[in-house]
Design goal:
Residues 1-11 have a biased composition (Polar residues). By secondary structure, the protein is mainly β. The chain is built from no helices and eleven strands.
Length: 138
C-alpha cells in the first residue's frame, strides 16, 4: 500500500497574484472582467466603459383612447447609450425630447402593442419591452 502526504499553504488575498487585465476588488467579490476590445485596422483598441443596463424597465400599461401616456426608462452605461424605440418590432421616429421617455399623445387603438426600448453603446446593448393596451372610453 502507498501513502501520500500533501501540504496545503494558505495565502492572504493580498498575496495572490491577479491575472493581467483583471481588477481585484477589496470587498472580496469577484474580479471585474477586463475591458472589451474593439477591432481597429492594424490591431485592437481598448474601449473603456460599461454596457447599457436598465435601471428602470418598461412596465405594462393601459390607457383610454384620446389620452396621453409617457413610457419611461432609466438606463446606465458608459459612454451614454443611445435609445431606439419600437412598437411591434417597427422602429418609431424619435423626436429629440426627454432622454429615456417616449410620449404617445391622443392614443388610438392602433397605438396598442408591444413597445421595446433598445439601449446601445460601443460596449453592448440591452432591451426592455412592455405591452400597451388602449381601451375604448365612452
Amino acid at each position: 500500500m502507498h501513502s501520500v502526504q500533501t501540504t496545503l499553504t494558505l495565502k492572504k488575498s493580498s498575496d495572490v497574484a491577479v491575472p493581467p487585465g483583471r481588477v481585484r476588488r477589496t470587498d472580496g467579490g469577484p474580479a471585474a472582467p477586463p475591458p472589451k476590445r474593439l477591432r481597429v485596422h492594424g490591431g485592437e483598441q481598448t474601449v473603456p466603459g460599461t454596457p447599457p443596463a436598465f435601471l428602470r424597465k418598461l412596465k405594462n400599461a393601459a390607457v383610454g383612447t384620446g389620452c396621453d401616456i409617457r413610457l419611461k426608462v432609466a438606463v446606465s452605461g458608459s459612454p451614454v447609450p443611445t435609445l431606439a424605440w419600437y412598437r411591434n418590432n417597427v422602429c418609431l421616429a424619435q423626436e429629440s425630447g426627454e432622454y429615456g421617455a417616449l410620449w404617445i399623445r391622443d392614443c388610438k387603438a392602433a397605438d396598442a402593442g408591444v413597445y421595446t426600448c433598445i439601449a446601445r453603446n460601443p460596449i453592448g446593448e440591452s432591451r426592455s419591452s412592455a405591452v400597451l393596451a388602449v381601451l375604448e372610453v365612452e
